Amino acid sequence: MKSPVERSTDDLRQPEHAFLTTPSGDELIDADLRYLRELPWSESSIGPISTWSRELLVLINLAMLSPQPQLFLLGPDSIIIYNTAYGRLLYDHHPLYLGRPIGMNEALISNAPAISRIVDRATTRAKPANENHVTFFFKNEDRLQETFLSATMVKLPEPLQGYHATTYDTTATAVQLRRKESLKAIMDTCASANDMTNFWDTMLQGISNEDGDISFALLYRAEVHTVYAAEADCQRHVVDGQNFTLHGKVGSEESAQPQQISLSSNEPYIRCMRESIRTGTPVLLSVKNGTLPKDWCKEARQRCYGDDALEAVIIPSIDAYGSEVHALLVMGISPRRPYDEDYSNWIHSVHQFFANSVMTIKLAEARAFDNNVKRVAAARAEQILAQQREAKLQAFSLKEAIEAKRQQENFIDVTSHEIRNPLGAVILSADSISVSLSQIQELVKQSVSAKLAIDPNSLTRLLEDITESVETITSCSLHQKRITDDILSLSKLDSNLIEICPSSIKLGSFMDNIVETFRVETGRANIAFGAKQDASIKFHDVDWIQADSGRIMQVMTNLLSNAIKFTATFDGAKSITVRVGASETKDVPIFNDLIMTKPLIDPNEKTNLFQGDIYLWFEVSDTGCGMSATERSKMFQRFSQASPKTYNKYGGSGLGLFISQKLVNLQGGNIGFNSETDQGTTFAFSICALRDKAPDVLTTRSTILPFKRASASDSLSMLLVEDNHVNQVVLAKQLRRAGYTVFTADDGQEAFDFLKSSRHWKGHGKSSDLPRVDFICMDIEMPIIDGMTCTKMIRKAQQDGDITNHIPIIAVTANARSEQLQAAIDVGMDDGISKPFRIDDLEKIIEKVVV
Questions:
Q1: DSSP reduced 3-state for 526
Q2: Count of helices and strands (H, E) across the chain
């Protein structure tokens, strides 16, 4: 029995069948003919090949050899026969569509209306029916690919049943036309943009209107800081080229993207962004290589046929290396179009329009700024001429007087706060010592009267309290001494009364003294602290020198005090290192990587103050919070600190570095620094010195501190809110000795949270297991939440019924002016007391406000 193939072959012996079995010379055509003749045609509606008419076979023969894509729709169910040229358009579907009804071919189903229109016109009209740029989607490598075909179809003459179509692949023409129209539409939409923000919006709107070749778009705009430009008397924008914010997008509303991105990140797509900025050209992102985030792929689900995007391009707002980047546009590639050379060229055109538009707007802004500069310059020139015709000197003097008065008032406020604040801890510590001495005296009396030995444990405890109080007084006094020294130094510097008084110094002992001076303070802050000598000291044989140790120590104190302040509260490893070195030239190597200051004093006017044969340099390095570029720009300015938050958090008068710079200049040296945010700070300065020999005699002195006694009071329960740890510990100890139950909080937020856990908060009842607060001592100047704000929160909670009773609040502050205390009462405090104070003074206030 013969197989179906053999039977089919036996049936194809007529001359018109020869083309099915005779090699054509083209392997692909021969393979398609073999596939065609081996199909089970007897099972189809048009029957075996042997039954086909000679005319149809001739047409099929001609079509199979044609280089132009052609197909036939035969029989009542429109069975498809197509040639090899048409098969190339079908990609993965070929040759599976041969011999199958059109209704079973998925790539053609979506185009059934267009095919029906062609068939209808071919049936009802004498002339061939045409259809241009019909969209087909054929699977190619597991993805559908968009293809545009134009077709001319004719109805086959009787007795043939069916249609014959000649097709043309017009994909390139159709896509090119669509892209041209898309770019024109984007350009037309953006034509009305007259500033940068408006341009971003119109660009996204233009992209949104065109759906064919942009599956989604994300526009990340560089963050812009506004600064005042005095030369133009207007605000100007400074672009942050490292941080970008999502301005808007075109894509799925259900998909959320990062609002901020930083180019310092090491994400794959961020690396591509950096490459795009570096080269000034578009860079391709792809799912295949992991550079296109999956969340970005979902943005295409409402555009371009709804498939997830597989590729996207990053388009920078520049077209050359080194330009200022204002935005990055991420455009999704159509998932049904290959990213080929034509696609890349079109993306290049979009990029050129995008970059040129941004440049045009920036040039317009620059011209406007230049016009402002010219206008301001002209106005200032007229003003100067007018002032010359008037009493310029008098006007200038008046302005100077007003500014001096403003600076003086600000300086008085700052220094008053800095002096009075530690004075409170000094007074309370002195009272503590007085109480401890009275108790020691009582122990002595009891031991004498009872002829018994003094209890060593009690005596040791009292002596430890005295020692701790003495250390507190010493620390606070040193702080006040630094402030007062700064004030005196500033006054003398302004009056040119500072004198440099060299004396013999052993360098090693001087460095040991620095370590010992700051050992306790750094130890309390858990800061690793040490000093070392650079190899240059030994190289230049520097042991004893002639220099003003007091002025050097004053500079070191200012630098180390700052280093401790800005390192103590910083998370992570804490360390401060002091180094000393020597150089025979003023340009010491340590300054190479530092930001140097301009001398405030002309050395030629003070040559007698720094004559020597060696330059000593000192370096102070810490691992603290560091400074930003803006903060670095304010260093060494009179009455100035890095930022307002510096004083609020760390205190200080803002004089230390300014004075240090002048003292260093007076000693013939320079001072510089370097700092990065969260990477610590380094200060270094040099002074001119003279080598010396060891003197014969060294002397030391000691100091004995006086002691006083404090009193006690009846028991009440209180909450002490104080951010200064020393003041908090000392005051709490004194109040407990006086009989009070004391709870503490470091800031307003902690205080408010404590009240929530007390018996005064609604729902807690009057449970004896919860803490009771009879009154609150509230500091005003605190980080996180200050005393004023915390008081408002407490009174608001009281009004709302969250706090069930009125809790008296006493303002405890170093702000001493009457209007400042009145402001505290105005926000809801019951009374106030200014630092420094004694327990007796506070108890009078407590008796007045606590009912």
A1: coil
A2: 25, 24
Cα gap 299→217, rounded to integer Å? 8
What is the Cα–Cα distance from 144 to 91, expressed in whole angstroms? Answer: 10
Helix axes 392-449, 456-494, angle to 10 degrees: 160
Give alpha helix (H) positions in 390-455.
392-449
Predicted local confidence at residue 648, as pLDDT: 43
Tokens of 766: 């009057």
**pLDDT, tens digit, for every residue of 190-213?**
988 888 889 999 999 999 988 889
Residue 579: strand, helix, or coil: strand
Nearest Cα residue to 777 out of 713, 827, 849: 849
Q: Which helix (H) or strand (E) holds 792?
A: helix 787-800
Residue the block writes with tokens 């070392």: 532
pLDDT value, residue 125: 58
Residues 795-801: contacts with CB under 8 Å, at least 24 apart: 795/827, 795/828, 797/752, 797/755, 801/762
Average the pLDDT over 460-477 and give the result: 80
Give the pairing of strands 809-813 and 129-139. Answer: unpaired
**Phi first, then psi: what are they for 172, rounded to 5°?**
-60, -45
Which pTM does this prediction carry?
A: 0.41
Closest residue by Cα to residue 682 from 594, 781, 804, 755: 594
Task: State which H helix or E strand residue 242 sits in.
Answer: strand 234-250
Between CA 812 and CA 836 the distance in angstroms is 9
Q: Whole-angstrom distance between the N-terminal and C-terminal Cα of the chain?
A: 120
3-state secondary structure of 129: strand
In 3D, which of 119, 114, 116, 80 has the Cα closest to residue 97?
80
Report the chain's mean pLDDT, rounded to a whole number: 81
> What is the Cα–Cα distance from 144 to 92, expressed in whole angstroms?
10
Which residue ranges form the domains of the chain, and what is each CATH number? 4-169 (3.30.450.20), 176-362 (3.30.450.40), 498-692 (3.30.565.10), 717-849 (3.40.50.2300)
In contact, 473 and 430? CB cutoff 8 Å: yes
Of 174, 96, 162, nearest to 131 by C-alpha is 174
More confident residue, 823 or 788: 788
115/162 Cα distance (integer angstroms): 13
Rounded Cα distance, 386 and 433, in Å: 68
**How many Å apart are CA 100 and CA 79, to the nearest integer?**
5
